[in-house]
Fold each of these.
Amino acid sequence: MTRLTIERLGHHGDGIAPGPVFVPRTLPGEVVEGDILGTAMPQPKIVTPSSDRVKPPCRHAGACGGCQLQHASDQFVADWKIGMVRHALSAHGLDVVPRRIVTSPPSTRRRAGFSAKRTKKGAMAGFHKRGADVIVEVPDCLLVDPAIAAALPMVEALAIAGTSRKAELSVMVTTSLMGLDVAVSGGKEVDPQLQMQIAAIAEKFDLARLSWGDEISLNRRPAEQIFGSVRVVPPSGAFLQATPEGEAALRGAVSEAVGNAARIVDLFAGCGTFALPLAEKAAVHAVEGDAEMMKALDAGWRKSQGLRAVTHATRDLFRNPLDAAELKGFDAAVIDPPRAGAQAQVAELAKSGIPVIAHVSCNPVTFARDAKLLVDAGYQLDWLDVVDQFRWSTHVELVAAFSLEN
Ligand SMILES: C[S@@+](CC[C@H](N)C(=O)[O-])C[C@H]1O[C@@H](n2cnc3c(N)ncnc32)[C@H](O)[C@@H]1O
């Protein structure tokens, strides 16, 4: 038995004691006791709890691997996430105090990726236990939209119909305006009998869309999302912001940052989460690497009424960023890259002379690296909001406004 004091939380949410020793589900200042295996104390006994320790609100928290920070108060998690962003920026010499953090409420995640497998009695579906091959059933999950939690029997039915005894099915369930949008991978090859079973499950659970690998896609109703006032049918499984509340916070901040810009370029535009609402007031050029997402954005724009022009281009912005000459003439840029950030594209933005830039990021570390490029080129980081769409997890998202100093 070793007794340790937790000094801080690591990026994966584990407490870290001197050594370092990683101690799951602990908080800074806590005194813990247990056996050390390698660099971990997997089963700590909490000797002195932190005043930030709370009873996990979800009854599945102990077994489930979905959430890492259910044992911490909301205030602790908010301060910790703000601290992560400040720390990442300070590593590049940028001292920024976020204006606020907007945390999505429980039960609002619009998508969950479940695992499912057959059992002797039928099937089980849920999330993977942390670091293990075990599936934990989560019927009362507090993260996901209630329509998604209620869909677990549908996920089990898909596993019974479409997996072999040892295989595991991955089932992504997304809410849409027209019902659930379901994308399955890892299932058996579709033969006529399985096709009929899949169609019957889609019917029974009244799904909007069900796709099975690359093999079939049943479209019972258009699996629409709404961006501002525009209805869009994203490709199955395509990127969406994680919660409607988070999306609204990001969209509000992006709109504040671009102000009255008349011509906006939206880089890493997805299916138009920002581009389409921005087109209520500005002409927008949307650029994105996925051609199907661009098609969905364009189809949504064409069906809408009263929007300004929205042009689009499919382009790999890592290898082939829009250069400073192509960026000339825009009054504002929106950029929302994947976790790797957008070093090449931001280097071009830095040279572009575009007066304002709204930068959305799901990775404070790559954001800080890219922000430094803009600041070195004469941009000022005007404000930054932390947007927590992944409550109880270690994910951090943010949106920041940059303007060119005169
Ligand atoms: C964080 S998402 C943001 C999407 C959109 N702004 C939204 O809010 O829905 C990042 C987007 O970058 C796209 N992407 C990833 N790698 C890319 C690349 N190399 N070039 C262009 N787009 C890329 C993805 O397809 C995804 O749509």
Amino acid sequence: MKSENKDQKAPAPAPNPTDKWFAAIASMFELAAQSEGPEKTARLAGTLLENLRSKGIDAPKPVSTPYVNTIPVEVQPEYPGDRDIERQIKSHIRWNAMAMVVRANSNTNVGGHISSYASSATLYEVAFNHFFRGPTENFAGDQIYFQGHAAPGVYARAFLEGRIDEKKLNNFRQELAEGGGLSSYPHPYLMPEFWQFPTVSMGLGPIMSIYQARFNRYLKARKLIQGDEPKVWAFVGDGESDEPETLGALTLASRESLDNLVWVVNCNLQRLDGPVRGNGKIIQELEAAFRGAGWNVIKVIWGSDWDALLAADKTGLLIKRMGEAVDGDYQKYSVEPGSYTRKHFFGKYPELLKLVNHLTDHQITKLLRGGHDARKMHAAYRAAMDHKGAPTVILAKTIKGYGLGEAGEGKNISHQQKKLNEKELREFRERFQVPISDDEIAEMPFYRPPANSEEIKYLLKRRKALGGFVPHRRVIAPPLDVPKVDYLGEMLKGSGKMEASTTMAFVRLISLLLKHKEIGRRIVPIIPDEARTFGLDALFREIGIYAHKGQLYEPVDRNSLLYYMEKPDGQILEEGITEAGAISSFVAAGTAYASHGVHMLPFYIYYSMFGLQRVGDQFWLAGDIKAKGFLLGATAGRTTLNGEGLQHQDGHSLLHASTIPTLMAYDPAYAYELAVIIADGMKRMYHDGEDIFYYLSLYNENHAMPPMPEGCTEGILRGLYKFKTGAEGLKHKAQIFGSGPIINSALKAQNILAEKYGVSADVWSATSYKRLRNEALNAKRWNMFHPTETPKQSYLETTLAKEKGPFIAVSDNIKTVADQIAPWVPGGLTTLGTDGFGRSDVRSRLRRFFEVDAECTVIATLYALAQRGEVPAKLVAQAIKDLDVNPEKVFPQIV
Ligand SMILES: Cc1ncc(C[n+]2csc(CCOP(=O)(O)OP(=O)(O)O)c2C)c(N)n1
Ligand SMILES: [Mg+2]
């Protein structure tokens, strides 16, 4: 330990109760408590601290405040719009949103949700009329993550705006109906000119919005975009806040000072089954979490009707009562008549009963919650827009199914309600004064006021003033001039005597791409704390790590050539240990062409086991949102990643990858294959504009990288090509497919088979079983529907048709990966793979254990020949003996 430095300034002493300042302030608070009550005094203390902070004094920040609105009525701004017209517009939207769901279900039972939008209509409408900015020539537009289940409300508004016609509205959730329909939830893949961000898998919208806001800053810092900064808005459910992804990245947003980010949590106190926190208060719980994480928190709990009650509450008893009641109570107040609330909420204290003596039961029923009050929401949004230095969350209290009355307002079944009877429809119509006659009501017609009505003129004027319609996804990025494979020429030449892994080859490849004049600066290397593992650490110094504050400290390795360099325009996104965050960055970068009109090329390299398996739903979302880029599952293979064992060894990512329709899945063995696949991928995605993305396995085993053989480009891309023909003049013939470094098992087996057993085996590199299968399926399907025409043959079928002998596949993946093509392999496919949990050990023992080594490949080949009657069974038995394989050995596959 260092000796204490006497010259150092001593820390300020803790406040001493005898200190004159302390004593004065303390006695003032005591006086306040006596006259105003403890609740008001606590609020006073909070406001005082806040005041001090606004004057630059670093006063402590409480994580929770009383259960009242954060913005006091005294500082609430004037409402800038025409509230009557806005209310009418909102009512029409409410009706249409409800009608589209109820209509769809009366015809088809396709589902849909009424109550989420019913609770959030005001949250959206205030923002549509006053805050959301649409894209213009020079502005990307605000980026809005709508709550997935509120989609009917967004469609209903677009209907009033004239962007969606009645037929489409009628075909909500019936996308395959004649003339098309509307997707159930926000899916850019299905409605590419409308939705920007998929949100319906709970938690993904929230986390993506944080990384989107950060990526916007990254683009700006790197001078790839200019002009006004979009606001990123995320509408989140209170139930959704239980997803780890929702709250998991909060501190990133505050650390990065993302004041371009606003979350609105719709606190309707309910989720699907019932209350979010019946015994507690979700708003208070979230407030503490967000404040603790450094966010600006604005609570909008009470509507304007409560202002007078709070002002009249001289003792703070009302605030105390508000704090006492739990969410389960508040839900009850929303379903019971005003008399119930009078008795059970106010009635707990006689003084509070007096406070509401002047109100009828009906008036008590109508006391609004903050999230249903446009003025309160407007004040919150205004404050969020003006807040600097930190992201804002607005916790808005609402009622689930607001306006549905008996049909579901505040009820536990509310989320699932999708049918209303005629009586309920009439009540809804009356409550929101929708001009639909008694004769028509049972038909649930949609209602759109005439084009020249005040409402429509107002609505369009507001959108025009704000730049245009939202949501609106537009793709304006011009095609990129991507480098051809020759640019990666050195990767095609082979490594000579030197051995390398495909991971090392990738490091070389990305270094070359970073130097390319057109695309170099558009490359976004994304790494979740694993750069050193993959040998990418040299990039730290070459292109820098993005850090909005730069580097405020001297890194410990400053004197080394490749030090850990952070800088404001750094190119690498070093995410730390968050695969969920890293894939969110991938999505933000991979969709910059649509959200900013700028092509970016993300290369997200990660530990393959912690990708598709861990955050697979986000990979799926990347397909939906049409993200482009390359995902690199490094340290792939159940046996190539030796030592690490069961939780690390991946043998199934390629199978996961094959489930995502637009994900191209490759398992390259050699550096030149990698170069060919990536060059073609860049062309397909960024030049030809295909909506696809790529997954490639990378391995860490060093082996010789051969030069690229002539004429194999098509085979590499389509999934299979002959790499090395077997010896001539032998009696038997076989075909072995190898992938990744396990191609070396095939090549070694080729030698043994030729030398010892008279078998000439051709060795193939199988780069994409997924692609082979999909092409084969397509051909088969075409043939089925065109039975009288000349059948088509897939690439796989044509390629294998002329080959002789049994087919054997060996890879470092579970067998189902190669088995994808089995139906089209003449005579069937014998597959070797790594089914079962991994083990920690060295490669050679692992490969024997999983039976994917050269010896087991020889045995499998001979056995396949024996089954065809081409060699005697005893030759197989002999080989098992010769090659020292124990036939009774344990095998990890579990039945
Ligand atoms: C990951 C995930 N799990 C479950 C669901 C099914 N689900 C859809 S909405 C919902 C309840 C949503 O409650 P909340 O977030 O409070 O939203 P609200 O509708 O109340 O505004 C559930 C469980 C889902 N869409 N995504
Ligand atoms: Mg909810």
